[in-house]
Design goal:
Elements (H helix, E strand, L loop, with lengths): L13 H12 L5 H8 L5 H16 L5 H8 L4 H26 L9 H19 L6 H27 L11 H11 L3 H32 L3
């Protein structure tokens, strides 16, 4: 999904701001993701495996953020979009679970208890966003997840190439559908603010996960 369009602050729509938010604050901007994608040293496989395991802990469970949001969404265009996104993301989830098995065990790393506590807090944060009573919040988180999954998918495909797993064709909703659903679901100032909050918080959790992965790699060092 192309998320690098230029957005003028005074003229941008809610949807354009959301796309720019994902482009500017999402995983694609995190230096550790770039390191994982480009690394070729003797520990690169271990670091990629660690990332796959932690991503699976965050997004490999059912129901996930999109499914929880769908369960609470009234009938209409937003529900229709979430239904399609749920079906597409289920394929991504199965791919992630398959990769988690293929890359081998979770690398031994100091601070395992702290890692699990961080992952539990992140999963709780995503559930809270998905089940928020603020109209627009869950949609903001769901559209941010779909947009931010594209750089994550690059990491999944890198892992797949290392372990000989055939990656499925991407099928997530495209940018045009994201714009359309945001236009439908964030049509008031309050829902627009809630959508922004949901998107910001989802991206915050993804950045925090990459920070955690980087800290774990440093803790393992050369061992």
């Amino acid at each position: 999904m192309a998320l690098n369009r230029s957005v003028g602050r005074q003229e941008a729509s809610v949807a354009e701001i959301q796309l720019a938010r994902v482009a500017g604050e999402g995983c694609a901007r995190h230096p550790y993701l770039s390191s994982l994608l480009e690394a070729s040293g003797r520990h690169s496989g271990r670091d990629v495996a660690d990332a796959i395991h932690l991503l699976c802990s965050l997004h490999g469970r059912y129901p996930g953020l999109i499914e929880l949001a769908l369960q609470r969404c009234p009938k209409g265009p937003v529900q229709d979009w979430l239904g399609r996104a749920s079906e597409s993301f289920e394929r991504e989830r199965l791919y992630l679970v398959r990769l988690t098995s293929a890359v081998g065990p979770l690398p031994s790393t100091p601070g395992a208890a702290e890692t699990e506590a961080s992952l539990m807090a992140a999963r709780h944060a995503l559930e809270t966003l998905a089940m928020s009573e603020r109209n627009g919040c869950a949609l903001g988180a769901a559209t941010a997840l779909v947009g931010d999954w594209w750089p994550i998918r690059r990491l999944l495909d890198r892992a797949a190439a290392r372990v000989g797993v055939e990656p499925p064709a991407p099928s997530l909703p495209d940018e045009a559908s994201v714009v359309t659903v945001i236009d439908s679901g964030a049509d008031t100032p309050a829902s627009s603010r809630a959508l922004a909050f949901g998107g910001e918080q989802l991206l915050l959790q993804h950045r925090a996960l990459l920070d955690l992965l980087e800290a774990r790699a440093e803790a393992r060092g050369e061992y």
